[in-house]
């Protein structure tokens, strides 16, 4: 009999609940919650690798899945939100042991909501992409603090704060002592963040130039090397999406509408999932809205219909434009069958390029 169990990963300990080879139920805790402690526990309790363990996709899942794979044990990763709506029949107090029992029960009954486990190299690129996005967002926040301080003290607005002319203008504005200290502190933090940010794009771009999937995505107008690396790492294997619209929903770019009886609120983007993926899709859509884009006529007509103007100046970065970088390669792969021809996609790429973009890891 294969060992079947569940892990509840916490910062201080890992709670386990499993049924061993003799059919006996065992549970306990592994502490501290480190890679070495888990490795020793697996060597003692499951040395032959004949086992399956389920865990939630919460912080810490990476090293647990890696250690399970190294021990030859099958790891099952599940979405925490989907697991939460599958409670046990009897209502009990929520404890770590109850969580592990639920994971083990769902896995044993073949009801566990499986999630895709990313390969290690894709996790590394995803981590770098998210670090870049976080640092850029923090630097942008410090720039906004400078603008707020200037407006709060009645100073004229200054554009391009980080340029030489912008810094010279900041030195000449009339600020109070506290306001000047706030601006100087913000500039120092911006310089520190810029030092950390500068090498990241080159690392991501260098990887994207060598990766077949990123090369294929870059052939679509508007998707650059940096966005291609981020989209590739955030989306992963698109074969787990049954349609391109599911990929758009995964990115949080689908329109969500709340309605009750005869009342209906205006639709809005759901903004669920990865903010880094939405940022990359928005940047690609901004570039794809240029006049040289192959889909410019479609965007132009749709924006005019959506905004209700004459269509001369459509607003870039709209919802449909944001989802276009998601739709084009995914729709290609969805229509592909082995041995089929390679027709051109609406975005201008070849189907086999899109196939490599979604299947190459």
Walk me through the topology.
Layout lengths: L2 E7 L4 E6 L5 E6 L4 H11 L5 E6 L4 H10 L3 E5 L1 H5 L11 H13 L5 E2 L4 H33 L11 H9 L4 H21 L1 H12 L1 H7 L6 H11 L8 H7 L4 E2 L2 E2 L2 E2 L3 E2 L5 H14 L7 H12 L11 H17 L15 H9 L2
Parallel strand pairs: 1-4, 4-5
Antiparallel strand pairs: 1-2, 2-3, 5-6, 7-10, 8-9
Helix pairs in contact: 1-2, 5-7, 5-8, 5-10, 8-10, 9-10, 9-15, 10-12, 11-14, 12-14, 14-15
Protein name: Transposase IS116/IS110/IS902 C-terminal domain-containing protein
InterPro entries: Transpos_IS110 (IPR047650), Transposase_20 (IPR003346)
β-sheet strand percentage: 5-15%
Major sheet: arrangement of strands: 3-2-1-4-5-6
SS-derived structural category: alpha+beta
Overall strand count: 10
Shape verdict: globular
What is the total domain count? 3
Element-by-element helix/strand order: EEEHEHEHHEHHHHHHHEEEEHHHH
Q: Sheet bearing the most strands, described? A: 6 strands, mixed
**Number of helical stretches of at least 4 residues:** 15
Radius of gyration: 25 Å
- Low-confidence sequence ranges: 331-361
Helix content: 40-55%
Amino- and carboxy-terminal Cα gap: 34 Å
Mean pLDDT: 80
Walk me through this protein's architecture.
With 361 residues, the chain is α+β, with helices and mostly antiparallel strands. The protein is 53% helix and 11% strand. The strands form three sheets. It has a six-stranded mixed β-sheet with strand order 3-2-1-4-5-6, with helices on both faces. A two-stranded antiparallel sheet has the order 7-10. It has a two-stranded antiparallel sheet with strand order 8-9. Helix 11 crosses helix 14 and helix 14 crosses helix 15. The longest helix has 33 residues.
